[in-house]
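Hypothesis: this fold can be encoded by more than one sequence.
Test: take the structure tokens below, design a sequence, compare later.
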């Protein structure tokens, strides 16, 4: 089975209890305080955006598995499921396995609901559970960034951007992206694939990135995305020149066309895009309407030279008050 970067099967969580999660605002600078907007107004607007987004995806033939987050779950960020689990498929045996991740916020840990985990386990019987890393002695919610014995957080494909074909993980270090946790994941993935002849383990490329105000970027997937042939990256956010060149050179070495975006475009979620596979095996790029309008025409032309379509939907409420966009709302089911 050939390695696949993208899939037509995705999971989403309907945000029946969506609101701005103040617990996570300290390091997510993409979030905006709602001011005098009522929780009811925000929740209803987010639900409309979710439904329209799901409808657009299904109209393109994508297979969407939907779960619901209800008020009793107390999970306001559940609309972003890609942070707490990822799925993978062995290219030789075609066996599926899933990874569950250690989350920084207490409310976000509640997203790992037993009913969803049970459903995923029925499809991915091999389960790598990294969530105990969040409970190690000495940990708190301030992040550890390099400690090997305290709590560590690694928020899935928000913290890590996978190049599944070339076996590279790009990761911007943050309170939610711990290097030691990522290395443990890579070792575990290598052990899972040890019975596969010539199986290649993942290479980890870490760097630091920040927004225009000098704040550390909380998730890698808001500043870069990697597809089969195209990569979108806000390289000016990688302030260290050596680290920036390392990222760009590695993308070039793996034959990616690099679409560089500005800080302003990153703030409009141009980095938070996801490649998907359509039923005819062509590739499309999914993004929010805000991101679509922020790309230049030249960038759009470049993207369309590699994708059959750019699929977009209005996610302004979820982006503004949740601090995540189109990619964050989709967990791939390989």
């Amino acid at each position: 089975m050939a390695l696949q970067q993208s899939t037509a099967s995705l999971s989403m969580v309907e945000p029946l209890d969506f609101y701005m999660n103040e617990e996570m605002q300290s390091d997510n600078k993409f979030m905006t305080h709602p001011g005098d907007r009522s929780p009811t107004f925000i929740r209803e607007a987010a639900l409309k955006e979710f439904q329209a987004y799901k409808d657009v995806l299904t109209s393109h033939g994508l297979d969407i598995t939907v779960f619901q987050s209800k008020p009793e779950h107390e999970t306001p960020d559940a609309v972003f499921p890609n942070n707490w689990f990822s799925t993978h498929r062995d290219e030789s045996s075609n066996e599926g396995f899933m990874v569950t991740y250690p989350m920084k916020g207490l409310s976000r840990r509640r997203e790992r609901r037993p009913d969803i985990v049970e459903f995923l386990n029925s499809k991915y019987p091999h389960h790598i559970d990294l969530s105990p890393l969040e409970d190690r002695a000495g940990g708190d919610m301030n992040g550890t960034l390099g400690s090997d014995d305290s709590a560590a957080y690694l928020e899935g494909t928000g913290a890590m951007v996978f190049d599944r074909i070339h076996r590279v993980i790009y990761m911007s270090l943050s309170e939610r992206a711990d290097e030691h946790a990522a290395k443990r994941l890579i070792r575990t993935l290598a052990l899972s694939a040890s019975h596969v002849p010539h199986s290649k383990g993942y290479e980890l490329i870490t760097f630091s990135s920040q927004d225009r105000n000098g704040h550390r970027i909380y998730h890698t997937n808001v500043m870069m995305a990697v597809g089969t042939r195209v990569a979108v990256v806000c390289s000016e956010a990688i302030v260290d020149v050596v680290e920036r060149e390392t990222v760009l050179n590695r993308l070039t070495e793996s034959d990616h066309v690099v679409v560089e975006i500005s800080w302003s475009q990153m703030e409009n979620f141009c980095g938070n895009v996801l490649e998907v596979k359509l039923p005819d095996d062509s590739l499309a790029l999914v993004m929010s309407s805000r991101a679509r309008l922020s790309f230049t025409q030249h960038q759009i032309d470049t993207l369309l030279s590699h994708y059959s379509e750019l699929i977009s939907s209005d996610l302004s409420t979820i982006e503004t008050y949740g601090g995540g966009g189109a990619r964050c709302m989709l967990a791939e089911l390989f």
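The CA atoms of residues 75 and 108 lie 6 Å apart. Residues 39-59 form the longest helix (21 residues).
Hypothesis status: open.
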